[in-house]
Amino acid sequence: MIGRRVLPAALAGVFAAPHLARAGGGRLITVGGAVTETVFALGQGDSVVAVDSTSRFPAQAADLRQVGYLRALAPEGLIGLAPDLLLVSEEAGPPQALAVLRAAGAPLTLVPDQAGLPAILRKTEAIAAALRQDGTALARAVQDDWQALDAPIAALRPLRAIFVLSAARGAPLVSGRDTHADVMLRAAGASNVVRGFTGYRPLSAELAASLAPEAVVMMDHALAEAGGPDALLRIPALAVTPAAASRRIVAMDGAYMLNFGPRAAHARRDLAQRLHGAALPALPARSWT
């Protein structure tokens, strides 16, 4: 294996050619589910030659070469694919890998990765600019769909909910403030009852009882790993909650629910309907959903 200390010098000529992907038609590597979805939604999917393991949509992405998990990238493998443009979520890492890519002269563009409508619009703008594409129509469509839900969801009774990231090892790991899950819960007409911390922490039975969530939201694979609804609701920290008494568990595909890419408005609508059991206005069919 080429040592990372000499890698940039050894591959200095790999990126000497113009960055054709910026004008369309070049070789793209996309890292981050929302990044990949946005590139395809902009009509540039045919230029994508590799994606990371979080890029599971659209279906065409599953047939592309994999470059690993976005937080454990191997720069040697990325450089070896000779991309004209690397579009990478700012959540990617480790930092040393990004430093190696920069030192090697890789055509690297970092894409902001926050949650909420303004964040979606910033992602779309950044990706379109990197590709030298006009992202106005895509951004406007996503904004229109998102805002069409504002009034109907605001009219619903706020539902007390928690987002459980994982429960396979006993104590549920739940979302506090300032996470993608927190933003999506609130966007879907729920109140995230965990407000005492940011990020994710284990939930005790005592805290769960005092918070009294009416619903549990999870990624579908996390619910399966926990053993399904029955096993989940037997966990002491959840068994004491109103959500357990009513068996109100909502599980959705994690990338769909939390990527905050072009499908975010549709995910917001689906989550709100499943949480509240209320019909919401249909959104227009979009080619990227």
If you had to describe this structure to a student in words, what would you say it looks like?
The protein has 289 residues and is α/β, with parallel strands linked by helices. It has 15 helices and 11 strands. It has 2 domains: 7-147, Nitrogenase molybdenum iron protein domain (Rossmann fold), CATH 3.40.50.1980; 152-276, Nitrogenase molybdenum iron protein domain (Rossmann fold, 3-Layer(aba) Sandwich), CATH 3.40.50. Strands 6, 7, 8, 9, 10 and 11 form a 6-stranded mixed sheet that branches. It has a 5-stranded parallel sheet with strand order 3-2-1-4-5, with helices on one face. The model is unreliable at 1-23 (pLDDT under 50). α5 packs antiparallel against α6. The chain has helices spanning 7-10, 33-41, 75-80, 95-103, 117-131, 136-148, 150-154, 180-187, 205-211, 220-225, 229-234, 236-239, 242-246, 254-258, 264-276; strands spanning 28-31, 48-51, 65-66, 85-89, 108-111, 159-166, 173-175, 190-192, 200-202, 215-219, 249-252. 43% of the residues are buried. Residues 27-279 form the Fe/B12 periplasmic-binding domain. This is ABC transporter substrate-binding protein. InterPro entries: ABC_Transporter_SBP, ABC_transptr_periplasmic_BD.
Q: What does this entry show, briefly?
A:
This is ABC transporter substrate-binding protein. By secondary structure, the protein is of the alpha/beta class.
List the helices and strands and how they pair.
Blueprint: H1 7-10, E1 28-31, H2 33-41, E2 48-51, E3 65-66, H3 75-80, E4 85-89, H4 95-103, E5 108-111, H5 117-131, H6 136-148, H7 150-154, E6 159-166, E7 173-175, H8 180-187, E8 190-192, E9 200-202, H9 205-211, E10 215-219, H10 220-225, H11 229-234, H12 236-239, H13 242-246, E11 249-252, H14 254-258, H15 264-276
Parallel strand pairs: 1-2, 1-4, 2-3, 4-5, 6-8, 6-10, 10-11
Antiparallel strand pairs: 6-7, 7-9
Helix pairs in contact: 2-5, 5-6, 6-15
